[in-house]
């Protein structure tokens, strides 16, 4: 069964786009869940529960939520994501 990954954040964000490119590259099934930064939704309690820095992106694979420098901004981590899938 295909893994479903939720990508929280506006796709125009380069930090979000970096993750989306990798998900596309591995052909992962995922949904983009928009976070409206113009209304500071990224600082809302609901989003801070996903990303404790109050930033985008955060991506969710089942119960596991990834966020922050190591998960999304590090080539080795993204390569790990690719290999996982
Ligand atoms: N290195 C971080 C950078 C994330 C980041 O800077 N995200 C920006 C949008 S591209 C953000 O959420 N800015 C709003 C803020 O910092 O309050 C990561 O990859 O998660």
How would you summarize the topology of this molecule?
Layout lengths: L3 E5 L5 H13 L2 E5 L11 H4 L9 E4 L2 E4 H5 L2 H10 L1
Parallel strand pairs: 1-2
Antiparallel strand pairs: 1-3, 3-4
The site of glutathione has 11 residues, from helix 1 and helix 3.
Comma- or semicolon-separated keywords:
alpha+beta; 4-stranded mixed β-sheet; 21% strand; globular
Whole-number average pLDDT? Answer: 82
Q: Give the uncertain stretches in residue-range form.
A: none
Ligand species: glutathione
Instruction: Summarize the main sheet.
Output: 4 strands, mixed
What is the compact description of this entry?
InterPro entries: Glutathione_S-Trfase_N (IPR004045), Thioredoxin-like_sf (IPR036249). The chain is α+β, with helices and mostly antiparallel strands and about 80 residues long.
Q: What do you see in this structure?
A:
The longest helix has 13 residues, at 14-26. The protein has one domain: Glutaredoxin, CATH 3.40.30. It has a 4-stranded mixed beta sheet. Helix 1 packs parallel to helix 4 (75-84). By secondary structure, it is of the alpha+beta class. The protein contains 4 helices and 4 strands; from the N terminus they run E-H-E-H-E-E-H-H. It has helices at residues 14-26, 45-48, 68-72, 75-84; strands at 4-8, 29-33, 58-61, 64-67. Glutathione binds next to helix 1 and helix 3. Its EC number is 2.5.1.18. It catalyses: RX + glutathione = an S-substituted glutathione + a halide anion + H(+). Residues 3-85 form the GST N-terminal domain.
